[in-house]
Amino acid sequence: MRHWRFVVSFVMAFSVCAGVLAQEMEPPAELKKLEWMVGSWEGSTKYNMEGMEMESKDTMDIRWDGQFLRITNVGDMGAMKMTETMFISWDAGSKKYKSWSFTNLAPMPRMETGEFLGDKFVSVSEPWSVPGMAEATVSRFTLTRKSATEVSFLLEFKEGDKWTKVGEGSATKKSG
């Protein structure tokens, strides 16, 4: 009987602790600076990679997911679709934004560190590999807020000591 009393007490204590820990944690204040992005967006991106030009029609859904900002993106390039889910967080230690992006184009996530530079949000990746590319690459993504409902963006790859533009586009907020 004494054993069962201990088990019941343990289960009740565990349940209370689990309930407290299961409460959603609010995003850090610094991450709330990106709250204007929350909603559904549509746009297009023009790519030029090593002379190969293509365009994608993009749809993005941006939502809060606990302490993270989650971005789900589909880029329809006609013969191919690129899907990507990114989680953005705030790293208080480095005072920078951190993100992890999972895409159907690569077997491992792309990890980036970002910050605001004036009115632009700039995020630079760690080296990441994409099947078909000769070597790991470093990318830089620059997002510019044009208005409450319009953004433009630039994607660059690092080649030696310089950055080369590989994609440029814009998107319009459809709902929020």
Overview of this protein structure:
This protein is mainly β. The chain has one domain (26-175): Calycin beta-barrel core domain (Lipocalin), CATH 2.40.128.20. The chain is 11% helix and 57% strand. The chain has 1 helix and 10 strands, in the order H-E-E-E-E-E-E-E-E-E-E. The chain has one helix spanning 2-21, and strands at residues 39-49, 52-65, 68-76, 81-91, 96-103, 110-117, 120-125, 139-147, 150-159, 162-175. It has a 10-stranded antiparallel beta barrel with strand order 1-2-3-4-5-6-7-8-9-10. It is globular and about 65 Å long. The mean pLDDT is 89.
Summarize the helix and strand pattern as letters: HEEEEEEEEEE
Please give the CATH architecture: Beta Barrel
What general outline do the C-alpha atoms trace? Answer: globular
Helix content: 10-25%
CA-to-CA gap between the ends?
57 Å
Q: Could you say what the CATH topology is called?
A: Lipocalin
Strand content: over 45%
Total separate domains: 1
Topology record:
Elements: H1 2-21, E1 39-49, E2 52-65, E3 68-76, E4 81-91, E5 96-103, E6 110-117, E7 120-125, E8 139-147, E9 150-159, E10 162-175
Antiparallel strand pairs: 1-2, 1-10, 2-3, 3-4, 4-5, 5-6, 6-7, 7-8, 8-9, 9-10
Structure at a glance:
The protein is mainly beta and 176 residues long. Helices cover 11% and strands 57% of the residues.
Keywords:
Lipocalin, 176 residues, mainly beta
